[in-house]
Amino acid sequence: MSRSTRQSKILDIIAKKDIETQEELVGELLNCGIIVTQATISRDIKELGLVKTLASNNKYKYTSVKSRDLKVSAKLLNVFKEAVITIASANNMVIVKTLSGSANAVGMVIDQMHFPEMFGSIAGDDTLLVIAKSNEGAADLHKKLLEITE
Description:
Layout: H1 3-16, H2 22-31, H3 38-48, E1 50-54, E2 60-64, H4 74-83, E3 84-90, E4 93-98, H5 103-112, E5 118-123, E6 127-132, H6 135-149
Antiparallel strand pairs: 1-2, 3-4, 4-6, 5-6
Helix pairs in contact: 4-5
């Protein structure tokens, strides 16, 4: 079995079940007829960019960072609130000024929120440029980001 096929199966498994440990993932793959070692799973997790998030049952589970159902943790929201200095918009752009060295962290939080108005973002040291899909989308995004800081 190819690596991409195995990794695709891993994504399928974690989308359907709450998998808390690498050993559980090895077991689920074995149930699918895929024999794999824990070391291979560890590499796959890293390559896929999987992270552990808190599930509804208060246990941790593996989640794809690209997953739309990823909830931003309270800690990350606090980082956002503490690091953001100002938010302004012009045309289809939103500029977020942050404490020095915090723009990447703030950008990660915004990216994980999967705002439908957002096209993409670029972070520097203390400034984050968020590009919206439209001028109206930028105004909506500006309003939503301000609400988070309150």
